[in-house]
Write a structure and sequence with these properties.
heterodimer; A: 111 residues; mainly beta; six-stranded mixed β-sheet; 41% strand; globular; B: 119 residues; seven-stranded mixed β-sheet; four-stranded antiparallel β-sheet
Chain lengths: 111, 119
Amino acid sequence: QSVLTQPPSASGTPGQRVTISCSGSSSNIGSNYVYWYQQLPGTAPKLLIYRNNQRPSGVPDRFSGSKSGTSASLAISGLRSEDEADYYCAAWDDSLSGPGVFGGGTKLTVL
Amino acid sequence: EVQLVESGGGLVQPGGSLRLSCAASGFTFSTYSMNWVRQAPGKGLEWVSYITSGSSTISYADSVKGRFTISRDNAKNSLYLQMNSLRDEDTAVYYCARTAAGHYGMDVWGQGTTVTVSS
């Protein structure tokens, strides 16, 4: 059971807007930044969003992140077939002695 | 080119040990914090361990605490993960990842090395 909760799956058609949620608590999302990673099939994860809503250079502005209280969301607009991947949220957790925590991941299918 | 290359994975029996390495190139390794993240077959990501640039701060997930040891050699641009008392549930692809400058996201990842624990 992951500390951060994501829906296991999401789907959309090309051109649509899709959102993926990530729910946590006051010790992680509530008091720390949220990060999002994209993992294409058979590849290593890639940083998609940092500090809740910032995009690294090279990430299209179709991807956006937001945070409110103890929840965060990743939105993908103008959905494309190449967006089909697993998406993970992550955050540091002040209540844990270890490093940060990931959500369980959401598999996005482009129909 | 900024690059991380893991090595050292393989098949090991339960209770055995393995040492993973991660060779960094294309950036000033000694100034970055580093991480090990793993992914069991068909499962999600698990943040295993973290080490700051000068090794002053180290942390481990509860699932590996007391069995795994992270270390680095800045002179050799290398990150390591010593894994002892391995269990079936440690079977995974292990990635090393760089913590980005200025924030705590992991902005560079290696291709991963596979560890299989089985008798």
